[in-house]
C-alpha cells in the first residue's frame, strides 16, 4: 500500500473569519455584545450624532474677523445661507486681552507675562524633583519679584518686607543655641513682627528717597481676568498647604487646647459656603480691625481663600496621617527623634504621599473657586469680564463663545493639574502592589 | 552590680517649664490659650468700637420689622409686609428645596454615569469619561450661567405661543412651539411643566395653624402602608424559604399591595396631569411654573455634583476586589444577585462617606444662586435684608450660623449612618 497523496509543505495559516478579526471583531465585542449593549451603543451614537449635527455647522461657520456680532451674523449669512448658525470668535480676537488681564494697562502687559514666565521657573523645582535643588532659592524670593512686577511701585517695598524673614532667621540662629528651638522660634516671630510694624515703612521711605527704583504702580482694581484668577489661586495654593499641614497636625495633637482650636477652625470654615467667607472679607473684616484700617481687597480675598483651602487640606492630610500604621510613630520615637523631626522625616513624607490625589483635587477646587470673587466686585474671567463684554453694544447677544473660551482655559489648567497628580503618584509609589 | 536608682528629685525650676517634657506641653497650651484669648479680646474690642462709632448697637430686633420687598419664588405665604424673619424662612426653604432636588438628581446621574463608566461598551464608557472630565474641571459657576443665560435670553415670550382665531383662519402657526410632546413650554418667564392635579380633592384641614392637604396626606399614608405590606410579604417569604427551601412567588402580590390601593386613591380623587395650555390672552394656563433661576441652579448643581458622584461610585465599585464577585459566582449566585447581595453592600461602605460630603458641597454651592438672582438664604437674609437694614454683622453672623447648622446636621446624620454600616471588627 502506498501513499496516494501527502503534503510536503505546511499550508499557510488561514485568516480568521471576517467576524473574528479586525474592526468587526472589536465592534462585536465592545459595542454590540448583547441586546442591552446594542441599545446603549445606538443611544450613544445618536447622542454623538445630535451633538455633531448641532455643533458641527456652528463651528464650521466660525467667524474670526468682525467688528460686532451683527457683522458676524452677516458674514455667516453670506457664507452659509440665512438660516445657518456660526460661532463668532471675532469677539475673543478683539477682547482676549480683557479675558487675560482685565483692566491692566495694556502698555504693561509684559509685566504679568514676565511674572508668569518666572512663575514657571520658580515652580519647576517644586514639581520636578530631578531639577537642581539650588533653584529653590529662586522659588523663595519669587513672591517678592512677582509682587514688584504685578503691582509695581517702589522696588524697596517687597525687598524690605522680605527682609523681615531674614531678620527672623538671623534672630532664630542667634538665640537658638542658648534658649532652644521653641523659644527661639517665638523670639524670631516677635523680631519679624517688630520689623514689619515699626521699621518697615521708615526703611522703605529712606531707601526710596535715596535710591528711587520704581515701576509704574498698578491698582488692585485694574487686575482682572485670568491674571486675577492666577494671582489668587497661586498665592492661596502656596500658603494653604503649610497652613493645612499645621492644622492637620494640630487636630491630631495630644494638646487639648490646640486640638480644640484647630477643630473649631476647621469645622467652622468647612461648614459655611466660600461665598459667605468672601462677603466676610469685603463687608465684615472692617468690623474686626481697629477703626480706620483698610487694606487691599485682593489681599483680603487671598487670606480668606487661603483659610478656606487650608481647612479642606487639613482634613485631607488628616486622612493621610490616620492611614499611617501606628508603628511608624513608634519607630520615630524609638529613634529618639523629637516631635518636629519625627513629623518632618518620617510621618509627613508618607502621609502627604498618600494624600496627593486629594490634595491636588482640593487645589483644583480652589482654582475653580477663584471665579467666585466676582461676587465681591472683582473682575474674574468668568462672570466679571464676560458680563462686561456682553454689556458692550457691539457684542450684545453673544452667548456661548465667551463661556466656551473661559471654560476651555479652566479645563486645560485643571485637567493638567489632575494629570500631574497622577504622574506624581506614580513617581512616588514605593510599594509593589 | 548596677542598681536602678530613682529619678533625681530635684526642685522645680522655672526653666523646667520649657525643657522638661512633663511640663512643656502644659506651658505651650497655656501660652496658646493666652494668645488666643488676647486675639479674641482684641477682635471683640475692635467690633464694639466700630459699632459704637457707627452708633448701632448689636441687636436682632430688625428681624421682626416689615421687610418691604417681594420674592419671586416662595414656598410659604409671604408678601412685602411680612417680616425680615419670614423672608429668612422663605430663603432658607428655597435653599433647602434646591439642595434636596439637586442631591436627588445628582445621585441618579452619578450612579448611572458611574456604573456606565465601568461598562464594557467602549463608546458609552468613553462618553461618560468625557462627561465626568468636562464637568469636574470647569467651575460650577460657568455651568449655572451657561444654563441660565440662554434660558432667559433665547426663549420666546408666552405671547409667541398664542394661536388666535385670526391666525387659525389664515392657516398660520404660532412662532414658538412646546417641547416634549407638547407638554413643556420654555418661555422667558419660566418653564411651564405638567403638574399632578385632582378633579375632586379631599380638601384640607387646618391643624394648629398649618393647613394640611388631605389628598396629599392620603397618598402618603397609602404609599407608606403599601411599602409596609410589601415588606411584610417579603419577610414571610423569607421565613417560608428558610423553613422549606422553596421561595414562594411573591412579585405579583407585592406589586398589588404596593400600587393597588394607591391607584384606587388616585382614581377616587380624580387624578390627572395638568398640562400647561398655550395662552389665550397673556399667560399660560395650568401646569406649574418653574422659575429660571431655580431650574438653572438645580440642573447645573446636579450635573456638576453628579460628575463627582460618578467618580465616587466608580472607585467604590472598583475598590471591591475581584475575588468577591468570583466567590459569589462560585457559590452559584447569578450576576444580579451578586451585585445586590455581595458587591453593593460592600461598595456602599466605601461610597457613602464621600457621597455625603458631596451632598454637603452641593448644599453649600446653592449659595451661588446669587449669580442668577435666586432668592435663597443668601439672597434674602444675606442680600436684600442686609442691604436694606445695613446690619452687616448681624446678618452675616446669622447666615453663617444657619449654614453651619445645616452642615453639622448633615455630617451628624452621616456619622450615624457610617457607624451603622461599619465593619464590625473584633
Describe this entry's structure for a reader.
The complex is a heterodimer of chains A (433) and B (426). Chain A is an all-alpha fold. Chain A has 17 helices and 2 strands. Chain A has a two-stranded antiparallel ribbon. In chain A, α4 (90-101) crosses α16 and α10 (256-271) crosses α12 (297-323). The mean pLDDT of chain A is 86. Chain B is mostly helical and 426 residues long. Helix content of chain B is 63%, strand content 6%. Chain B has 13 helices and 7 strands. In chain B, strands 1-2-7 form a 3-stranded antiparallel sheet. In chain B, α3 packs antiparallel against α4 (122-136), α10 (322-330) runs antiparallel to α11 and α12 (377-389) packs antiparallel against α13 (392-421). The two termini of chain B are 46 Å apart. In chain B, 27% of the residues are buried. The model of chain B has no long low-confidence stretch (mean pLDDT 84). Chains A and B meet through α2, α10, α11, α15 and α16 of A and α2, α4, α5 and α13 of B.
Structural class of the secondary elements of chain B? mainly alpha
Compute the average pLDDT of chain A: 86
Number of strands of chain A: 2
The proportion of strand residues of chain B reads 5-15%
What multimeric state do the chains show? heterodimer
- Helices of chain A, by number, come to 17
Main beta sheet of chain B: strand number and arrangement?
Answer: 3 strands, antiparallel
Order of helices and strands of chain B: HHHHHHEEEEEHHEEHHHHH
Unreliably modeled segments of chain B: none
The two chains with the largest interface, and their residue counts, are: A-B, 61 and 57 residues
Low-confidence segments of chain A = none
Rg on CA atoms of chain A, Å: 30 Å
Q: Proportion of β residues of chain A?
A: under 5%
First-last Cα distance of chain B: 46 Å
In which order are the strands of the major sheet of chain A placed? 1-2
CA-to-CA gap between the ends of chain A? 64 Å
Helix and strand run of chain A: HHHHHHEHHEHHHHHHHHH
Write out the strand line-up for the largest beta sheet of chain B, numbering strands in chain order. 1-2-7
Amino acid at each position: 500500500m502506498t501513499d496516494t497523496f501527502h503534503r510536503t509543505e505546511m499550508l499557510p495559516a488561514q485568516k480568521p473569519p471576517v467576524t473574528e478579526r479586525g474592526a468587526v471583531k472589536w465592534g462585536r465585542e465592545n459595542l454590540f455584545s448583547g441586546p442591552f449593549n446594542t441599545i446603549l451603543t445606538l443611544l450613544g451614537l445618536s447622542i454623538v450624532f445630535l451633538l455633531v449635527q448641532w455643533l458641527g455647522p456652528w463651528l464650521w461657520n466660525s467667524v474670526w474677523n468682525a467688528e460686532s456680532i451683527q457683522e458676524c451674523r452677516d458674514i455667516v449669512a453670506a457664507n452659509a445661507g440665512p438660516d445657518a448658525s456660526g460661532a463668532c470668535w471675532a469677539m475673543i480676537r478683539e477682547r482676549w486681552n480683557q479675558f487675560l488681564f482685565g483692566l491692566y494697562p495694556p502698555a504693561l502687559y509684559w509685566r504679568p507675562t514676565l511674572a508668569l514666565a518666572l512663575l514657571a521657573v520658580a515652580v519647576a523645582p517644586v514639581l520636578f524633583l530631578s531639577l537642581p535643588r539650588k533653584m529653590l532659592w529662586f522659588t523663595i524670593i519669587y513672591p517678592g519679584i512677582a509682587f514688584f512686577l504685578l503691582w509695581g511701585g517702589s522696588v524697596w517695598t517687597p525687598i524690605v518686607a522680605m527682609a523681615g524673614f531674614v531678620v527672623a532667621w538671623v534672630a532664630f540662629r542667634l538665640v537658638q543655641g542658648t534658649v532652644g528651638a521653641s523659644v527661639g522660634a517665638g523670639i524670631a516671630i516677635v523680631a519679624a513682627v517688630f520689623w514689619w510694624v515699626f521699621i518697615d515703612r521708615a526703611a522703605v521711605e529712606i531707601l526710596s528717597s535715596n535710591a528711587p527704583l520704581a515701576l509704574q504702580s498698578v491698582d488692585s482694581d485694574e487686575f482682572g481676568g485670568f491674571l486675577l484668577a492666577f494671582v489668587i489661586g497661586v498665592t492661596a495654593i502656596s500658603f494653604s498647604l503649610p497652613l493645612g499641614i499645621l492644622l492637620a497636625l494640630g487636630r491630631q495633637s495630644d494638646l487639648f487646647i490646640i486640638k480644640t482650636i484647630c477643630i473649631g477652625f476647621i469645622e467652622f470654615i468647612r461648614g459655611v459656603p466660600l461665598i459667605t467667607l468672601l462677603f466676610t472679607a469685603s463687608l465684615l473684616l472692617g468690623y474686626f480691625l481697629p477703626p480706620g484700617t483698610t487694606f487691599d481687597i485682593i489681599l483680603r480675598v487671598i487670606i480668606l481663600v487661603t483659610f478656606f483651602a487650608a481647612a479642606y487640606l487639613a482634613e485631607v492630610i488628616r486622612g493621610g496621617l490616620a492611614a499611617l500604621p501606628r508603628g511608624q510613630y513608634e519607630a520615630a520615637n524609638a529613634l529618639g527623634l523629637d516631635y518636629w523631626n519625627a513629623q518632618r522625616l518620617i510621618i509627613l513624607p508618607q502621609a502627604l504621599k498618600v494624600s496627593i490625589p486629594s490634595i491636588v483635587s482640593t487645589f483644583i477646587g480652589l482654582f475653580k473657586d477663584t471665579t467666585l470673587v466676582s461676587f465681591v466686585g472683582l473682575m474674574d474671567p468668568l462672570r466679571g469680564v464676560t458680563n462686561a463684554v456682553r454689556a458692550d453694544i457691539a457684542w450684545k447677544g453673544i452667548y456661548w463663545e465667551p463661556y466656551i473660551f473661559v471654560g476651555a482655559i479652566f479645563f486645560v489648567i485643571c485637567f493638567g493639574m489632575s494629570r500631574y497628580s497622577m504622574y506624581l503618584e506614580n513617581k512616588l509609589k514605593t510599594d509593589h502592589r | 552590680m548596677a542598681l536602678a536608682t530613682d529619678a533625681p528629685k530635684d526642685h522645680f525650676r522655672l526653666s523646667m517649664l520649657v525643657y522638661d517634657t512633663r511640663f512643656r506641653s502644659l506651658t505651650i497650651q497655656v501660652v496658646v490659650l493666652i494668645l488666643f484669648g488676647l486675639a479674641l479680646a482684641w477682635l471683640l474690642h475692635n467690633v464694639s468700637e466700630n459699632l459704637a462709632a457707627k452708633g448701632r448697637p448689636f441687636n436682632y430686633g430688625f428681624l421682626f420689622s416689615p421687610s418691604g420687598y417681594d420674592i419671586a419664588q416662595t414656598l410659604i405665604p409671604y408678601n412685602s409686609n411680612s417680616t425680615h424673619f419670614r423672608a429668612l424662612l422663605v430663603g432658607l426653604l428655597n435653599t433647602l428645596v434646591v439642595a434636596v432636588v439637586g442631591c436627588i438628581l445628582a445621585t441618579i446621574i452619578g450612579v448611572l454615569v458611574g456604573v456606565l463608566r465601568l461598562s464594557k461598551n467602549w463608546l458609552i464608557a468613553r462618553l461618560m469619561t468625557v462627561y465626568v472630565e468636562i464637568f469636574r474641571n470647569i467651575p460650577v459657576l460657568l455651568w449655572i450661567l451657561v444654563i441660565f443665560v440662554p434660558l432667559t435670553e433665547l426663549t420666546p415670550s408666552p405671547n409667541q405661543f398664542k394661536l388666535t382665531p385670526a391666525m387659525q383662519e389664515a392657516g398660520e402657526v404660532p412662532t414658538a412651539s412646546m417641547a416634549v410632546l407638547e407638554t413643556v413650554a420654555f418661555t422667558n418667564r419660566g418653564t411651564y411643566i405638567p403638574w399632578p392635579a385632582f378633579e375632586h380633592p379631599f380638601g384640607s384641614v387646618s391643624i394648629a395653624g398649618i393647613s394640611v392637604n388631605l389628598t396629599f396626606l392620603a397618598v402618603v399614608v397609602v404609599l407608606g402602608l403599601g411599602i409596609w405590606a410589601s415588606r411584610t410579604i417579603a419577610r414571610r417569604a423569607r421565613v417560608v424559604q428558610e423553613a422549606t427551601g422553596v421561595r414562594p412567588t411573591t412579585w405579583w402580590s407585592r406589586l398589588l399591595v404596593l400600587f393597588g390601593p394607591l391607584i384606587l386613591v388616585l382614581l377616587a380623587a380624580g387624578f390627572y396631569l395638568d398640562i400647561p395650555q398655550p395662552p389665550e390672552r397673556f399667560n399660560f394656563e395650568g401646569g406649574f411654573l418653574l422659575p429660571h433661576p431655580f431650574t438653572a441652579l438645580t440642573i447645573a448643581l446636579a450635573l456638576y455634583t453628579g460628575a463627582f458622584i460618578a467618580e465616587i461610585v466608580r472607585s467604590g465599585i472598583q475598590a471591591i476586589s475581584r475575588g468577591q464577585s468570583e466567590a459569589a459566582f462560585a457559590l452559584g449566585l447569578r450576576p444580579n444577585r451578586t451585585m445586590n447581595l455581595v458587591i453593593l453592600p460592600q461598595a456602599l461602605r466605601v461610597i457613602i462617606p464621600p457621597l455625603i460630603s458631596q451632598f454637603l458641597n452641593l448644599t453649600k454651592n446653592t449659595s451661588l444662586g446669587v449669580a442668577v438672582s435666586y432668592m435663597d438664604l443668601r439672597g434674602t437674609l444675606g442680600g436684600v435684608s442686609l442691604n436694606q437694614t445695613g446690619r452687616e454683622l448681624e446678618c452675616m453672623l446669622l447666615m453663617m450660623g444657619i449654614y453651619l447648622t445645616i452642615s453639622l446636621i448633615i455630617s451628624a446624620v452621616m456619622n450615624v449612618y457610617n457607624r451603622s454600616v461599619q465593619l464590625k471588627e473584633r
